[in-house]
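chain below, 299 aa
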Amino acid sequence: MRVLGVGYCTLDFIGEVDRFAEPDAKVEWDKLSVQGGGAAATAMVTLARWGVDTLFVGKVGADARGGEIVATLSGEGIDVDGVVYQDGAISQVTFVVIESATGQKRTYFTVGTVDPLTEDEVGAQMLEGVDVLHVDGTSSSAQLKLVKLARERGILTVLDAERVEDGVIELVGASDIVVASERFASQFTGQGSLEGMCKALVERGPGVVVVTMGDEGAVAMEKDGVLVRAPAYPVEVVDNTGAGDVFHGAFIYAYTMKRELSECLSFACVAAGISCLGLGGRERIPELAEVDAILAAGW
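prediction:
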């Protein structure tokens, strides 16, 4: 299996302190992790660690930080030949501060001065040998172009839907699978119930719809209209940054392994839950055997 992820990538500085600093005060980190981030990017890292042949296409500045961002992907064995470097641009970065005493976190970020991917920067050549295309709704016009090309070639397309924007709305109807946050599903459909949200999304075109709900788990529906549920895997959360991205990678893995929809949900919920035991989305991505052992034990 070969999976192409297209979307946002960044560099995450994630630190833990006992208490947030008061104004004008300084607090020393208890822990600090520097790692790559971004929804589609972390989903590809998840798959790469499980032995899947992965590629990533995104955009960074042609600066030192852009090189660091790409190195967090190439270092995982991900093909980054399609990454675009923008001359003169300042690359994106994110800072996350976690207060261990309360579990609360504060996130600060900048997208820098990097422009979105354009339609001219992506093309059919990127889809050669690809079985699955995963997009995250950023650079939506470029992603829509690739999704349409992928559908013409029989490539499975998966959308991570987080924000209700014009381009993302069109992506919903063009994708085979839509994995949406509960907020997106509610805003997009205007429905109040999970079943209503899923039915309304399925009616837009996708063959499979998943709605994620954080610590309340996830639900899914296919064209048959049957709602499937899976609870969140219970852990003592250290940091939930990137957990949804791990969920997306895990769901893609299970689905392409031809598992039942309920099994795909449970598999993804367990993987996402375990990822919350470390800082950031990539520190504690579980081994495949760890996830399967939990499921085999009857969770």
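The two ends are 28 Å apart (CA to CA). The first strand starts at residue 2 and ends at 6.
thats it, cya
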